[in-house]
Amino acid sequence: MLILTSLLLISGVCVAVDLTINGSVGGTVELPSVLGSLKVEDFRFVWWIFNGKIRAEISSGHIEVDNQAQFKGRLQLSPDFSLTVRELRLEDSGEYQRVGLKEDGSQIPTYKIQLQVNESITTVQIQSELTWLPEILTCAAYLVCSSTGDPRPSYTWKKGKQRESSSELRFFLLPEEGDVIASCTAANSASEKTSNVTMRCIPTVPPVGFSPCLLKMVVFSVGLIIMVSAVITVHLRERFYRQREHVQGAETEGTAPPGGRL
Fold first, then answer.
1. 113 and 6 in contact (C-beta within 8 Å)?
2. 54-106 per-position pLDDT tens digit
3. DSSP state of 72
4. Are the C-beta atoms of 113 and 19 separated by less than 8 Å?
5. Distances (CA, A) of 57 to 32, 46, 83, 112, 227
6. Which end of the chain has a smaller Cβ tally under 10 Å, C or N?
7. Where are the beta strands (DSSP E) in the chain?
8. What local confidence, expressed as pLDDT, does residue 3 receive?
9. What is the pLDDT, as a whole number, of residue 8?
10. Which of left, alpha, beta for 51 (phi over 0: left; psi -120 to 50: alpha)?
11. pLDDT, tens digit (0-9, with 9 covering 90-100), for 129-143
C-alpha cells in the first residue's frame, strides 16, 4: 500500500516524506529511486541512507550494498537505482533517503521514503455468547474477536448492514430471524483476515409449572411426610411391645404350678 506526499511526526517535528510504503514481516519491498531516464554515467554517486548510514551506493559505476548484521544478504540495488529489501524485519521500519550528486557537481533533490513493516495477521478467532431473555422473548448476543500475528490490528464487524469498528459486538436476535452471520475482520497496513460465526436464537422453555416457590413446597412436604411417618412408626412399635407384654403376663398368671390343678 502506497501513500504519496504524506507527513510523519517524528520526535515532535513534522517531517515531509515523498512516499510511504507498507510491508509485512518476511516480505519484499522495492524503494523506487524516481530518477527517470538518468543513467549511471550521469552521476558521481547515488546513495541510499538509513539510520544515518549508507546502506547502498553507486559510485563511479561501482555498486556496493551493506552486508553488515542487519541487512546482510537482503539488499539489492537495481540499474535504475531502486533499492530492494527482502525478508523484511520489524527493525527495517524507518526513513530511507536517496541522495546523489551529478557529474557536473549539482546535487539531485533528496528523495525520502518511509517504510513501515508490520507483522502479518495469521488467524482470527471469534468467541460468542447467546443468552435467552424470556421477559422480552429475544436473545442477547455478545461476540469478541481476537487474532494472532500483529498485536495491535484494527477490528471491523459486519452483520447485515450493521458495521462496528471494535473487537466486541453486541446485538439482540429474535427467534424468527433464523440463522444470522456475523463476520470479523482483523487488519493492518500489510494484511487482513476475516472469520465468520453463525448464530440462531432458540427459546429456552422451563418445565411447566416449575418455580422456586414450588420447589420449596415440594421439599417441605417431603420432609413433613418423612417426619410424620417416623412418629407413627415409633408409636406403632411401642404399642406392639405393650400388647406383647400384656399377653405374656396373662399367660403366666393362668399357668398351674407343678403337681396341682387349675
1. no
2. 999 988 778 888 887 889 999 998 888 999 999 999 999 999 999 999 888 88
3. T
4. yes
5. 14, 5, 10, 16, 100
6. C
7. 2-4, 7-10, 13-16, 19-24, 29-31, 43-50, 53-59, 62-65, 75-77, 83-85, 94-102, 107-118, 123-133, 138-148, 154-159, 162-164, 168-173, 180-187, 192-199
8. 34
9. 34
10. left
11. 999 999 999 999 999
Mean pLDDT per 10-residue segment, the chain (262 residues): 34 60 92 86 90 87 82 90 94 94 89 93 95 95 94 93 94 95 93 95 70 57 71 72 66 53 43
Amino acid at site 157: W
189, amino acid identity? S
* All cell numbers assigned to 32: 523506487
Contacts of residue 236, defined as CB under 8 A and 6 or more positions apart, other chains included, come to: none
Q: Is 73 left (phi over 0), alpha (psi -120 to 50) or beta?
A: left
- Distance (Å, whole) CA 242 – CA 235: 11
Instruction: Flag whether the pTM goes above 0.70.
Output: no
What's CA 171's distance to the chain center, in Å?
19
Q: Which residue type does 58 have?
A: I
DSSP secondary structure string for all residues of 153-195: -EEEEEETTEEE-SSEEEEEE-GGG--EEEEEEEE-SS-EEEE
